[in-house]
Design a protein that fits this description.
Elements: H1 4-8, H2 11-19, H3 25-43, E1 46-48, H4 51-66, E2 77-81, H5 108-115, E3 119-124, H6 158-165, E4 171-175, H7 182-188, E5 191-194, E6 215-219, H8 222-232, H9 250-255, E7 269-273, H10 283-298, E8 302-306, H11 314-329, H12 348-359, H13 362-375, H14 380-401, E9 407-411, H15 427-432, H16 438-443, E10 447-454, E11 460-467, H17 472-485
Parallel strand pairs: 2-3, 2-4, 7-8, 7-9
Antiparallel strand pairs: 1-3, 4-6, 5-6, 5-10, 9-11, 10-11
The structure holds glutamine.
């Protein structure tokens, strides 16, 4: 059987090929490993690939398939963002601080996917400790956008998004604290979903901002995301914010929709926040988003304007809270318990200081300093407490909006992928580009980004769908209906050929 269609194939087709014994999991893994070997030097999407380990997992999957015990992901290759701990494999978080860290255990998400029989191709590049929107803060160098390698893939899960877009992996995990699944999905022309906070266990996910961090899924389509997300969710007593809910079969929910209706989304009301359609969005993005909304209406959905009056305050609220939590979470990296230790120092305090100064990059240090500042006596009330109040107001905005609509739609990002280095000199400018994604994290809601067009330079544009708590199935179903009627999700960068 020719392997070219398999590289392009949705996970459901890979499943059928594996079950029909048209291809083995070892052959499939080899196919993707060879693509990584041939193409990743141009993309830098992977930090660690361990061929023998991957093939051993694939052999185990083949045995399981042969014994008739395969689940939906058994034998399917995937990649993990390097923020998830993987037993016996380097987990760097894109940082010099953890550049020698081999985790003694698997993150809950990694363990679930192993149990499902998925085959890990490796660990993907990311902004250092998931702090960034461009993958440029990685100690291992930036990942690149497969559509234009001179441009960023988005961040912080840039490696996972670039890998899926270039078909170096069919699906990949990511994390989204303020947009890090949805924004790189949009920059790379793929689909990504961040579920309701608490649905995916954070155990073994190296913490950035614990009240916001959430695992998510990347795939070419909503269907592929549904398969991956279903396998990642599940109660975990080791994460105190893990939600104990019966598992949902998201893929089955897609299949169960009425089949041949020309208006499959009839009855769905999509809210368009006035605040998301004002100034600040590029005209190419506006045109692509408007066209996508017209498509949603053609599929039967109704659109209406809603208000999120406090959403404009999401950036300051998010960055205060995220940096505060980061300053506390990252205190564990002191040269004693984990990772990098400075080679020369005079005493214990000097060892802490040098290890942290040498082990952390500039952006991480900036955030630890700012986070410590907003939590310090005399500033706590002025910054941190105010940010928490804004967070509550933003959550209230969404609650009111979901009284008037089922889903909210808008652009994922006000800009498309920028050129490498274009924003590095101005971190605040880069923070502003998170305007549409951060409100969703502050409220703990699920959000999805799917491709909906291109800008004049040929870079992908993403549409963001936001749902009420636990509406993942509804989000995925709406995106799936859109993708059944359009082909944006089937477009591939030349680099993927
Ligand atoms: N760009 C945001 C930040 O830098 C979001 C990152 C994320 O979601 N991990 O904090």
């Amino acid at each position: 059987m020719s392997t070219a269609p398999l590289v392009e194939a949705p996970v459901s087709a890979l499943r059928r090929a594996l079950d029909a014994k048209n291809i083995s999991s070892v052959e499939l893994a080899t196919l993707f490993l060879e693509r990584i070997e041939a193409r990743d030097s141009a993309l830098n999407a992977f930090i660690t690939v361990e061929r023998e380990r991957t093939l051993a997992e694939a052999r185990a999957a083949d045995a399981r398939i042969a014994s008739g015990e395969a689940g939906p992901l058994t034998g399917i290759p995937l990649a993990h963002k390097d923020v998830f701990c993987t037993e016996g494999v380097l987990t760097t978080c894109g940082s010099k601080m953890l550049s020698n860290f081999v985790s003694p255990y698997d993150a809950h998400v990694v363990a679930l996917l192993k149990k499902a029989g998925a085959v890990s191709l490796g660990k993907t590049n990311m902004d250092e400790f998931a702090m960034g929107s461009s993958n440029e803060t990685s100690y291992f160098g930036p990942a690149r956008n497969p559509w234009k390698p001179g441009h960023v893939p988005g961040g912080s899960s840039g490696g996972s998004a670039a890998a899926v877009a270039a078909r170096l992996a069919p699906i990949a995990t990511g994390t989204d604290t303020g947009g890090s699944v949805r924004q790189p999905a949009s920059f790379c022309g793929i689909t990504g979903i961040k579920p309701t906070y608490g649905l995916v266990s954070r155990y073994g996910l190296v913490a950035y901002a614990s009240s916001l961090d959430q695992g998510g899924a990347f795939g070419a389509s909503a269907e592929d995301c549904a398969l991956l997300l279903a396998a990642m969710t599940g109660f975990d007593a080791r994460d105190s914010t893990s939600l104990d809910r019966p598992p949902e079969d998201y893929a089955a929910a897609l299949a169960a929709q009425p089949a041949e209706s020309s208006r499959p989304l009839a009855g769905l009301v999509i809210g368009l926040p006035r605040e998301f359609f004002g100034d600040g969005m590029s005209s190419d993005i506006r045109a692509a988003v408007e066209a996508a909304l017209a498509q949603y209406r053609a599929l039967g959905a109704a659109t209406r304007e809603v208000d999120l009056p406090n959403a404009k305050l999401a950036i300051p609220a998010y960055y205060v809270i995220a940096m505060a939590e980061a300053s506390s979470n990252l205190s564990r990296f002191d040269g004693v318990r984990y990772g990098y230790r400075a080679a020369e120092f005079t005493d214990l305090a000097d060892m802490y200081c040098k290890s942290r100064c040498e082990g952390f990059g500039a952006e991480v240090q900036r955030r630890i300093l700012a986070g410590t500042y907003v939590l310090s006596h005399g500033y706590y009330d002025a910054y941190y407490l105010q940010a928490q109040k804004l967070r509550r107001l933003i959550g209230g905005d969404f609650r009111r909006a979901f009284g008037e609509c089922d889903l909210i739609a808008g652009p994922t990002s006000p800009v498309t992928a920028w050129e490498l280095g274009a924003m590095s000199g101005d971190p605040a400018q880069m923070y502003l580009a998170d305007i549409y994604t951060t409100p969703v994290n502050l409220a703990g809601l699920p959000g999805l980004s799917h491709p909906c067009g291109f800008d004049a330079g040929g870079l992908p544009v993403g549409l963001q769908l936001i749902g009420d708590y636990f509406s993942e199935a509804r989000l995925l179903a709406a995106a799936h209906r859109f993708q059944q009627a359009t082909d944006w999700h089937l477009r591939r960068p030349a680099l993927a050929a």
